[in-house]
Structure formats: structure tokens, C-alpha cells
């Protein structure tokens, strides 16, 4: 402390440091306004990832200043910490006023936060549609409260010259706003106007246009039923008229995506209400600054949306405009628009203009682009509302790469490289975990390249230099092989389902112990077999397998994943023998005859002889089998399709559950024997019991069996709350029934909110586990 | 030990156990793994040795005897050599029927005669029941390089054309179907045959023949990955032109096998300079064993060691070494 001098004339000078998400969110202008209002002298600047201020005035004024920094921050800011220190009062000249200074880079290394992209704010939106405003209908308007961030930032600290907007020198009018601390656009780094900012362009084989003309050409094409590639915030999107069967079918054919639901863009909440039934939670999600695709119950035929938009499911993904361009487009077309990632199935979303022409050329009739470069790829996020909070299905634009906290810090910086599908990676420094945006299927060469690029970009931006790599046990994941290039002493392997449930526990700040329930597709077990229906007694560092689903052969390995019909025969002919009577051969024959002769015969032979039939204790595969037995799907074109069909079929029915059994295996692990469930399904189906009723009764049986496994583990001493994770919990009915049953048994149930329960959350879970393990090894 | 299928696990076994023991102190200096070695001190002579174990001993299109000749002749040929002589060592399990042994040996002899290579020495041991599985054969071959040919897995270069001498997937599928008595696989016959004449036919191309490989265990995927790794290049192939006979494709589909991972015994993949590709194809097609030769891809710019398949729908999939078992990567 500066001793008696600090109190001279009752005037003090404080050093105020604010960390968290404080850059790119209008924090410095906010500090300026606050300080000026309180009559303080001093300055504020961005330093690396945080904000540093020097303020001088009365102690009361300074205390108020600090309180407001903490409590009244702008809406997009997340204040993690405010640290205060004394300065020599002479450091700030009395009466010098308050200034916003240039950013400085080189400080001590710390985790730097990358601000996320935010939807158009109310003020900017009003200007967008105000004919008197100079930014009327300007597709790139933004301010300190809104606009592109993570996708345009090339380096930190966050300043215009370190974004892709550096190529657009400000005009006099914009420069004045940028420099005026009283203006909403004061230091709005991506600030732009029609005179100085980016410009739209339209390209089709027939015509090229610029500016407003380009928009008009795109609107006309969409009204005419064309597929238009639109350069969005974090990548190209494919857009078409969602009310046109022909347009939607054309997009499906060209994108080679036969069944997976498309998201629908509508201009506002009123339009969303015409499509879907929205609760308060759904409205809040739709209108949030992240503007995620929100999965909501569709109104069905009356919605006006073509049946091909979301076949096989009663849920439709809806999103509101995330950028001024999307506002203009959706209002001008005046119809709901299909809005889906600009890629071919499995590839990363396209961000480069030339690449878009090449890759999307066969899909799109025209391209609505512009000259603002996308630096970091970021797909649209996908969320849904549950009874007790949001469930993130895909964490990307608007959420990534905002950091999350780990309950146990890592003693060394690390990177966790995730799984294979729905790939993400997570960077960790101390207790801060930065999850990179969703990338897709690593088996795709473009996705693998996108991973390398995103890893390089994000580790540099956040200034995290990983010393340890964390990976899955599956030797075939390309992420595991990427990790294998690191020296053996710097690799940590984490079991897939431990990572799943650890992700949930870590997000809730739980170091353990806890009971983890992973209902999942497939993941590599620590015994070399495939797992996927697991009850683990854990903490973050380790686990013990306490319960599981019975195993069944996957006839033809990956082929069985694409063909639920194979999986059903796998269960009916080769499920683990736990003492239940086998399925009635006549019923099996009758069912198998529906699969096509060649396939049924082949599956019988490979199951009998164990040829290319790895066994799995998977919940996801059990859902596949049930969907096929009910005749809902024998083949799938996307992951989870059979389970989606089963959930949709079940509707709101609450019939008696099908039978189920728990058996204690020789090794002491409790096992759910699904054979009675499946044989009852087979018989019910043969007896003409309505499919919805059977589908609902199946869900209940699986939920009861799962809860039963947990209750047995708890009865035998497993402590703590129950963490639910794994891709199957995207099935809201299953989630609801399992958690309801467990809560009914007096257990605390946790579900991932910001971190996806599917494989998109695996990297975060791996990071949490590795941090705990390394922390324990390092005293 | 699950290291048998010629994939990632067998590569690991080789890297971590076998090679360090046999080439002490030279862990960094060992060159690429080739099918056969050039004799130290005489770069015209090539030597290889191979152990043959196959169940069952007889399969559609061949048997272990013919395989023991073809496999060794082909390993020599992949270094650009013509076979000079073979030696054969038999380990026979007590109880093997003499008629079966006789049939194998007759086939072996016929295959050697057909390949034009003498069997100059041999050895036979009979072991107790259970100490071997019917019959193991170890064949050693010496060959002489065709003047001008010095292909190596490390010699592929950007711009090279990737040529395949014939259809893939038959051998592994045929053996599996008889071993497991899979009634739904029919009309699939092993492609086992010698390839040294095909290689000799390429002699006029000389140093433009950069790399040759016969995609046996681990299939075409393994061969391409080895060449991509050892030559530090990216290899791209095109699914649309990949020759997979219809019965093989149907069987693989039902079995859940990837034809790229299935073993072959009668085709080779050649990396040749772009300008020699058309001529190489012409030369290969002039012989019956190369009648269906096609260009399947090329060496492109990209991460070294990566093999990419352009699929029927235009996606670019990374082609990986097969795992020991076909473990799905899908969650
Ligand atoms: Fe998973
Ligand atoms: Mg060989
Ligand atoms: Zn704004
Ligand atoms: Zn301007």
C-alpha cells in the first residue's frame, strides 16, 4: 500500500483488473461510462484477455465503481473475477478525465478468452429497418452489444486490426463513432456501414450482382424454389424454401442427406409460434444472443412446413436470425427457410469462398456471399429445452469457445482430443477448459484438416501450449492416432464412458464421488470390448463398472450400426445368455422374413459362427433393435435415427412397462437382461398391439432397468449424485423417465447443460479426468 | 494376442517387439519395410522369407502350397526381381492325412513349375498334435532384379499415378467363406497367382516404376498406407474406379467387411511417374494377370502418410489401417 500518501485529500487511486468474458462485449465503453458518471479520473485498456483500469477518486466512488464493474456489466459480458489494488495517487493526474487506451499484448501468460458471436441487438435491429438510418438494410451492422466475434478474430487482444475487418478502413462517420466513448459503437471492433464495410455479392451461373441487388437476386431465387448457399456467421449455409416440397426434396437429394432433419429459419418468435409449440424456456433459447437451432415440438401439418423438413420426428429445429443478413433474407422471402450447414454429409462446414463454389457447386443454384472473411469455422449450435434446463446437442456458434471451469485444475496445460464423430477438442490451462466448436466426423479428410487448423488457431489465441494430450481408448479413432504421435510420457488415455459422465460431473463442479450412467452408442471399454450401457461408480480420476446392459453381437461390426435389422437379429439370436428363455423361433423367423432373405440368412450365419461380430453392451444398439422389431426402421442414414423414430412413435403414452430383468454376473456386476423386453416386443408386435403403445412401454422398461442398476449400486454403497450422459439421453422421454425414477428414489440427478451428452462432450470429460489424475500425481 | 490381421496391431507388434530385437541400435536408421531385401553387398540379388499359415489348407482357387510359392515369388517381384530359386520348410502336425499333404505338395510343385522357379532345398518336421495347425510352410526365395527396376515403398512421389493390376477382395473373402462355412458367399475364388511376369513387363519403364506392393494381409488399405508413410506423401484413390467384383462386394456388404481391408494374393499396386501411367497400363493389360489393370488414383499434395478415398458420393474419407477386428468407430 502506498501509505499515508494514498489518503491525501481523501483521494485514492486503484488498479482494477477484470477477467472473464470482457473483451468484445462493450466492456471498456461500459467502464468509461461508469467511471465518468462517478467523476473518476483514469484509464481503461484491454490487456491480453482481460480488462485493466486505473481509477482515481474518492474511496466511496471507487468502491461503487468496482461494485458496478462486477454487477452491472453489459449483457454479453461474463465477469469471472475483479481484483483491486492500490496505486500511488500520483499515478493518475486529478482532473485528467477518463480515457480508453490502446490494447497492450505482452503481459504474463494467462488464459485469454475469446468472445463469442452474438445475434443482432435490439438497437441495431431497429436501425436495420429504419429507412432514415444510414445503416438501413445494411447486412453487416453491429455494435459493442452484438455482432461477429470468435469467427472474425485472428488474434488477441481483441482489436479491429486483429480481426478480418482490418481490411475495411473506417469511413469518417464510422471512425467518429468508434472513437466516441458515449456512442454504442465506441470500440465496436467489427463496426461497419454501407460506405466503408463489407458488401454482399451474388453469383449464379446466370448472373452476378452486388450489394442490395445481390440480396434481391437471392430472395428471388429462394422464392422460385432454388437452393442458395449463404455465407453465414461461422460458415456457409444451404438455404431453401421450407414450405416447398420440391425445394426441400431437391436439397436432400443434392446434399445426399435423405432423412436427417433440417433446421428452419424464421424471422421472429411470432413466426416460430406458427411452426411449433413454444414454452417460455424455448422462447428464451430462440431469442438468446447465441441464437441456437432450438429443437421444439412441431405443430404438424398446420405449420405449413414441407413434410420433408423433419421426417420421422415430431420435433423441428427452429432458429431466429443470427445476423442482419439473416434478418433481411428471412423477412424479404417471407416464408420459413430451411437453413442447414453448408457441407456435404460428414464434411466440415465450408468457410472459404472459392472452396464454397467448388464443394457446394453441385448443391446450390446460387451463392450469396460477401467479402468479410470467416477466420474460425463455427457451425450453428443446437439445443433443446427440458423440464429442468437446457440440453446442448451441438456446442458451436454463440457458445464456443467460451471457457468452462473444471472442478479440479490441471497442473499442466493439456489438450483433450475427443472421440471420432461429432468431434470436438478441449484445451485446458489450470481450471479453465476451452471447448473448440463442433467439427464433425474425423474420418472425413476435410474434418481432420479442420481439426488441425482449429487446434492451431485456438491454442494460439488462448495462449495454451499443451504439454499433455488426452485421448480415447479406441485404437481406431483418428483422434487417438493423432494423439499417438505424442511421446508416450505425455499421453493420457480415458475410457469413453468415463469421459461422458465426467463431462457432466465436471460441468456441475463435482470432483466426485458420483454414480455415472452412460447410455450411449458404442465406446471402447477397458476390457477391449465395446461398451455403451454402463453404470460406473466414479470420481473424476477413476471408475469401477458396477452395472451394464447385456451384450449382443454386432453382426458385421459397423454394418450393424447402419442396419438396426441386423442388430435386432443379433439380440434375438446371440444376446448374452443370462437365463431368460430364448425368443420364440417362429416369431423370429416371421420378423426376419421382413428383412430380406439374403440379409437375414447372412446375419444368422455370421452370428452363429461369430464372424466379424464384436459384442457390445450398448443402450443405443438396443434402441436400434427395438425400432426394427417394431418395423419402424431396418436401416438408418444418420446416427440415432432409429431411436428418434422410436421416441416419436411413443408420443405421450404411458402404458405398463415391458418386462425386464436384472441379473448379477459372475464378476459381481449387475446386468440388465433385455431379452424379456425384446421378446415381449416381438410378441406384442405379432399380436397386433399398437406400435406407439409398445414403443412407449419399451422406453419405460429400459428406464426402469437403468434406474434399477443405479439403485443396486447405491444399495451396495455407491455414494453421491447420479450423472446422466451419453448420446441416448438426447431422447427426452428416456431422460425424463430415468431421471424421474431416480429422483423418486431420493437421488440427486445431474445432466449436462452446456456440454453435450453425445460425443461432442467427450473431449471436455477427458480433460476433466486427465486434470484430476495429473493433479493427484503432482503433489 | 490379437495381432494377426495385417492391420494396426500387427504393425505395432513389428515395431515394438520384432524389429528392435533384430536390428539392435538402428531404431532410427532402419529403412522402410519392404516385401523383400536387397542382399548386402550385391544390389542385384533380392531375398525374402515368408511363413504361410492358412485355414483351411484348401480354398476356392488355391491351397496353401500354391500360396507358399506365389507369396514368395510376389514378394521378390515387388522389389523388381525375377525368382531364381526357392527353399521350402514344412511343419506338419501329426494326423494330417497323407493324401492332403500330397495334394498340397503337388500343388506347390506345380505352382513353382508354372512360375519357372526351382525349389532347390527343403526341410520337413512332424510335430505332435496341437503343436501346429495341420501344416505350416516357410518359403525362402532368392531373385535377381530386372535391370533398371529398383522400386521401393519409399520412392513414391507427388504426381505419381497409382495403378492396380486387377480386382481386389477375392482371396480373403474366399478363404473366410470356406473357413466359416458361410453358405451365402458364392462364386468368390481366390486370385492367388504369381506376378513376376507382370513386373518384368514393366521393365521398359525403368526408374519410372517408383513403388510396387502386393496388397496381401491388411488389403489395399495397408499397402497404400505403408507407401504413403514410407514415401511421406498423400495418396488419393477413387472409389468409382476401384475394381471390386460384384460377388465380393455383396459378400463384404453382408459380412460388414471393407474390401479395402481384405487380403489379396494376385494383384499389385504400382506407383509410376504420371507420364508413364498410360504405357504402364498398356503393358500390364498385355498379360492375363494384368488384363483388368486400372488407374485408381494419384499422389497428391497433402499431409504425408495420409490415404484418402474419394467416395461414390464425392466425400473424401481417410482410409485407415484395419484394426485387428472390424471395430465400429461409430458411437
Ligand atoms: Fe459416446
Ligand atoms: Mg508378403
Ligand atoms: Zn448492436
Ligand atoms: Zn463507415
TrEMBL record, chain A:
UniProt entry tagged with the keyword Ligase: yes
Keyword Hydrolase: yes
Enzyme Commission identifier(s): 6.2.-.-
Pathway assigned to this chain's UniProt record: Protein modification; [NiFe] hydrogenase maturation
Keywords: Hydrolase, Ligase, Metal-binding, Zinc, Zinc-finger
Pfam family membership, one: zf-HYPF
Active site (UniProt): 28, 46
Highest taxon of the lineage: Bacteria
Broad EC category: ligase
TM regions (residue ranges): none
Acylphosphatase-like domain segment(s): 13-102
Reactions the enzyme catalyzes: an acyl phosphate + H2O = a carboxylate + phosphate + H(+); C-terminal L-cysteinyl-[HypE protein] + carbamoyl phosphate + ATP + H2O = C-terminal S-carboxamide-L-cysteinyl-[HypE protein] + AMP + phosphate + diphosphate + H(+)
Residues annotated as domain YrdC-like: 212-398
One example GO MF annotation: ligase activity
Biological process per Gene Ontology, one example term: protein maturation
Annotated family: Belongs to the carbamoyltransferase HypF family.
Database matches in PANTHER family: CARBAMOYLTRANSFERASE, CARBAMOYLTRANSFERASE HYPF
Protein name: Carbamoyltransferase
Organism: Wenjunlia vitaminophila
Lineage of source species: Bacteria, Bacillati, Actinomycetota, Actinomycetes, Kitasatosporales
Amino acid at each position: 500500500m502506498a501509505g499515508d500518501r494514498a489518503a491525501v485529500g481523501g483521494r485514492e487511486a486503484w488498479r482494477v483488473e477484470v477477467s472473464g468474458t470482457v473483451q468484445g462485449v462493450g466492456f471498456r465503453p461500459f467502464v468509461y461510462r461508469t467511471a465518468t458518471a462517478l467523476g473518476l479520473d483514469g484509464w481503461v485498456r484491454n490487456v491480453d484477455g482481460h480488462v485493466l483500469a486505473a481509477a482515481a477518486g474518492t474511496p466511496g466512488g471507487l468502491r461503487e465503481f468496482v461494485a458496478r464493474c462486477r454487477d452491472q456489466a453489459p449483457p454479453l459480458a461474463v465477469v469471472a473475477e475483479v481484483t483491486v489494488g492500490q496505486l500511488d495517487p500520483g499515478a493518475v493526474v486529478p482532473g485528467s478525465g477518463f480515457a480508453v487506451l490502446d490494447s497492450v499484448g505482452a503481459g504474463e501468460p494467462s488464459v485469454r478468452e475469446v468472445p463469442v458471436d452474438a445475434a443482432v441487438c435490439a438497437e441495431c435491429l431497429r436501425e436495420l429497418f429504419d429507412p432514415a438510418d444510414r445503416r438501413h438494410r445494411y447486412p453487416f451492422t453491429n455494435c459493442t452489444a452484438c455482432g461477429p466475434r470468435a469467427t472474425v478474430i485472428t488474434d488477441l487482444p481483441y482489436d479491429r486490426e486483429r480481426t478480418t475487418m482490418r481490411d475495411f478502413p473506417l469511413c469518417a462517420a464510422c471512425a467518429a463513432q468508434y472513437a466516441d466513448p458515449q456512442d454504442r459503437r465506441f470500440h465496436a471492433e467489427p463496426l461497419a456501414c454501407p460506405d466503408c464495410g463489407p458488401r454482399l455479392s451474388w453469383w449464379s451461373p446466370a448472373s452476378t450482382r452486388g450489394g442490395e441487388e445481390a440480396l434481391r437476386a437471392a430472395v428471388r431465387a429462394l422464392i422460385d424454389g432454388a437452393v442458395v448457399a449463404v455465407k453465414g456467421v461461422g460458415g456457409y449455409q444451404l438455404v431453401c424454401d421450407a414450405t416447398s416440397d420440391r425445394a426441400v426434396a431437391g436439397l436432400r437429394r443434392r446434399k445426399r442427406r435423405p432423412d436427417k432433419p433440417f433446421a428452419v429459419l424464421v424471422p421472429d418468435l411470432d413466426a416460430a409460434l406458427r411452426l411449433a409449440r413454444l414454452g417460455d424456456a424455448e422462447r428464451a433459447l430462440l431469442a438468446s444472443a447465441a441464437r441456437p437451432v432450438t429443437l421444439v415440438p412441431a405443430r404438424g401439418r398446420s405449420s405449413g412446413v414441407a413434410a420433408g423438413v423433419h421426417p420421422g420426428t415430431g420435433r423441428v429445429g427452429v432458429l431466429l436470425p443470427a445476423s442482419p443478413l439473416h434478418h433481411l433474407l428471412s423477412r424479404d422471402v417471407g416464408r420459413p427457410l430451411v437453413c442447414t450447414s453448408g457441407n456435404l454429409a460428414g464434411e466440415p462446414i465450408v468457410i472459404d469462398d472459392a472452396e464454397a463454389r467448388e464443394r457446394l457447386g453441385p448443391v446450390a443454384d446460387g451463392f450469396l456471399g460477401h467479402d468479410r472473411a470467416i477466420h474460425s469455422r463455427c457451425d450453428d449450435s443446437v439445443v433443446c429445452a427440458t423440464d429442468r434446463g437446457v440440453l446442448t446437442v451441438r456446442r458451436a456458434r454463440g457458445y464456443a469457445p467460451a471457457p468452462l471451469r473444471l472442478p479440479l485444475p490441471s497442473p499442466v496445460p493439456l489438450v483433450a482430443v475427443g472421440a471420432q464423430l461429432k468431434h470436438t477438442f478441449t484445451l485446458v490451462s489450470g481450471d479453465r477448459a476451452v471447448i473448440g466448436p463442433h467439427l464433425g466426423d474425423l474420418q472425413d479428410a476435410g474434418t481432420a484438416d479442420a481439426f488441425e487448423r482449429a487446434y492451431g488457431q485456438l491454442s494460439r489465441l488462448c495462449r495454451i501450449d499443451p504439454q499433455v494430450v488426452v485421448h480415447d481408448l479406441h485404437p481406431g479413432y483418428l483422434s487417438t492416432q493423432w494423439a499417438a504421435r505424442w511421446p508416450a510420457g505425455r499421453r493420457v488415455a480415458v475410457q469413453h464412458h468415463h469421459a461422458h459422465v465426467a463431462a457432466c460431473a465436471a460441468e456441475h463442479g463435482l470432483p466426485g464421488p458420483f454414480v455415472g450412467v452412460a447410455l450411449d452408442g458404442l465406446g471402447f471399454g477397458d476390457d477391449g470390448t465395446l461398451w455403451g450401457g454402463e453404470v460406473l461408480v466414479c470420481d473424476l480420476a477413476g471408475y469401477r463398472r458396477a452395472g451394464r446392459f447385456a451384450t449382443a453381437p454386432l453382426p458385421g461390426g459397423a454394418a450393424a450400426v447402419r442396419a438396426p435389422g441386423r442388430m435386432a437379429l443379433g439380440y434375438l439370436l446371440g444376446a448374452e445368455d443370462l437365463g431368460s428363455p430364448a425368443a420364440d423361433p417362429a416369431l423370429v423367423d416371421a420378423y426376419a422374413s421382413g428383412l430380406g432373405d439374403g440379409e437375414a440368412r447372412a446375419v444368422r450365419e455370421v452370428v452363429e459362427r461369430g464372424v466379424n461380430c464384436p459384442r457390445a453392451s450398448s443402450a443405443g444398439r438396443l434402441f436400434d433393435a427395438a425400432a426394427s422389431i417394431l418395423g419402424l426402421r431396418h436401416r438408418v442414414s444418420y446416427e440415432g435415427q432409429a431411436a428418434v423414430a422410436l421416441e416419436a412413435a411413443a408420443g405421450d403414452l404411458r402404458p405398463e412397462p415391458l418386462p425386464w430383468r436384472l441379473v448379477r454376473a459372475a464378476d459381481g456386476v449387475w446386468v440388465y437382461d433385455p431379452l424379456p423386453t425384446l421378446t415381449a416386443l416381438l410378441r406384442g408386435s405379432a399380436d397386433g398391439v399398437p406400435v406407439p403403445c409398445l414403443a412407449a412401454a419399451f422406453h419405460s422398461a429400459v428406464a426402469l432397468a437403468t434406474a434399477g442398476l443405479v439403485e443396486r449400486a447405491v444399495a451396495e454403497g455407491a455414494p453421491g449424485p447420479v450423472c446422466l450422459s451419453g448420446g441416448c439421453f438426447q431422447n427426452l422421454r428416456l431422460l425424463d423417465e430415468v431421471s424421474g425414477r431416480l429422483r423418486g428414489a431420493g437421488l440427486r440427478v445431474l445432466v449436462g447443460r452446456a456440454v453435450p451428452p453425445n460425443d461432442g462432450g467427450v473431449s471436455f470429460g477427458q480433460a476433466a479426468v486427465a486434470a484430476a489424475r495429473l493433479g493427484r500425481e503432482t503433489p | 494376442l490379437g495381432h494377426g490381421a495385417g492391420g494396426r496391431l500387427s504393425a505395432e507388434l513389428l515395431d515394438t517387439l520384432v524389429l528392435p530385437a533384430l536390428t539392435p541400435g538402428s531404431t532410427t536408421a532402419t529403412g522402410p519395410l519392404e516385401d523383400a531385401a536387397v542382399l548386402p553387398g550385391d544390389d542385384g540379388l533380392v531375398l525374402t522369407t515368408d511363413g504361410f499359415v492358412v485355414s483351411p489348407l484348401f480354398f476356392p482357387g488355391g491351397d496353401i502350397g500354391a500360396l507358399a510359392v506365389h507369396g514368395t515369388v510376389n514378394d521378390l517381384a515387388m522389389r523388381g526381381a525375377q525368382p531364381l530359386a526357392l527353399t521350402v520348410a514344412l511343419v506338419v502336425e501329426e494326423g494330417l492325412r497323407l493324401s492332403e499333404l500330397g495334394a498340397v505338395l503337388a500343388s506347390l510343385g506345380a505352382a513353382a513349375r508354372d512360375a519357372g522357379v526351382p525349389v532347390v532345398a527343403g526341410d520337413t518336421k512332424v510335430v505332435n498334435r496341437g503343436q501346429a495347425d495341420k501344416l505350416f510352410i516357410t518359403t525362402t526365395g532368392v531373385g535377381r532384379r530386372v535391370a533398371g527396376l529398383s522400386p521401393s515403398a519409399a520412392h513414391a512421389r507427388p504426381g505419381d499415378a497409382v495403378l492396380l493390376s486387377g480386382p481386389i477382395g477375392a482371396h480373403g473373402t474366399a478363404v473366410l467363406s470356406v473357413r466359416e462355412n458361410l453358405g451365402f458367399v458364392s462364386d468368390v475364388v481366390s486370385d492367388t497367382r504369381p506376378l513376376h511376369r507382370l513386373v518384368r513387363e514393366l521393365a521398359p519403364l525403368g526408374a519410372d516404376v517408383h513403388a510396387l506392393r502386393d496388397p496381401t494381409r491388411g488389403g489395399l488399405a495397408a499397402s497404400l498406407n505403408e507407401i504413403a508413410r514410407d514415401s511421406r506423401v498423400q495418396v488419393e484413390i477413387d472409389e468409382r474406379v476401384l475394381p471390386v467384383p460384384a460377388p465380393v462386394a455383396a459378400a463384404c456388404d453382408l459380412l460388414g467387411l471393407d474390401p479395402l481391408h481384405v487380403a489379396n494374393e494376385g494383384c499389385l499396386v504400382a506407383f509410376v511417374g504420371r507420364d508413364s501411367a498410360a504405357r504402364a497400363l498398356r503393358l500390364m493389360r498385355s498379360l492375363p494377370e494384368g488384363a483388368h489393370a486400372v488407374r485408381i488414383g494419384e499422389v497428391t499434395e497433402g499431409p504425408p502418410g495420409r490415404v484418402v478415398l474419394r467416395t461414390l458420393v464425392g466425400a473424401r474419407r481417410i482410409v485407415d489401417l484395419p484394426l485387428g477386428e472390424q471395430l465400429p468407430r461409430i458411437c
